[in-house]
Design a protein that fits this description.
seven-stranded parallel β-sheet; 8 helices; about 220 residues; 7 strands; alpha/beta
């Protein structure tokens, strides 16, 4: 039995996401959708990107949470323009929210907008928000079976970051299993291992991110 309301919502979201993408393209702003579980290290990864690339790009952040503004305050303390989006229970961000939020930014004075999506491995992957590309984060403590359990998240991402790699010796985590599963569902994915805590691996990831940004804004 077809559930038409779901079809209609998704169709409407895709229409708005194209409008968002058009606005960003006209202003030469690259938008990155960062997704992952709660505690995977999304905020830490974003702050790493800001520290290493704010000299090159003018960066803004949309901080998605079900409630609160803890992470947004961290971005603000770094001198970054940030808008807090509280979904009040919704498990993902939709394109309409992004469209409304863009009015809060001076797009003429931005090169990059980083969106920290709501923390889970299911809903965010289903909704295009007008982003130029996606970064999915999987942390070592979460386990090496997540690509198999949540294939859509990893099949729809452009970059996969395996984070908290410094904790590998303390967990039964098969990195080769993750690599194989990720490539199986997404042969074109770029994969990076890094530790936000130690900084190991961050340089390679940031360089790849920068190359993708340059393709979009230059």
């Amino acid at each position: 039995m077809e559930i038409k309301v779901v079809h209609q919502i998704l169709e409407w979201n895709e229409d708005v996401s194209r409008q968002v993408a058009d606005v960003l393209s006209e202003n030469k702003v690259c938008m990155i959708n960062v997704m992952g579980s709660p505690g995977a290290g999304k905020t830490s990864l974003i702050t790493t990107v800001i520290r290493q690339l704010s000299h090159k790009y003018r960066i803004g952040v949309i901080e998605g949470d079900i409630a609160g503004q803890i992470d947004a305050e961290k971005m603000q303390d770094m001198g970054i323009p940030v808008v807090q989006l509280n979904t009040d229970g919704a498990c993902h961000i939709e394109a309409m929210s992004i469209q409304n939020i863009l009015e809060s930014f001076d797009l003429a004075n931005l090169d990059v907008i980083i969106v920290e999506n709501i923390g889970n491995l299911v809903c965010p992957a289903e909704f295009n928000i007008g982003e130029d590309f996606r970064v999915a984060i999987l942390s070592v403590p979460e386990g090496d079976d997540k690509v198999e359990k949540y294939p859509l998240m990893f099949s729809e991402t452009d970059i996969l970051v395996v984070n908290k790699f410094d904790m590998l010796p303390y967990f039964d985590f098969d990195i080769q299993r993750v690599f194989a599963n990720a490539i199986e569902v997404n042969p074109d994915v770029e994969i990076f291992t890094l530790s936000n805590k130690t900084g190991d691996g961050a340089e390679a990831f940031v360089e790849a991110l920068s190359a993708r940004i340059d393709e979009k804004i230059k």
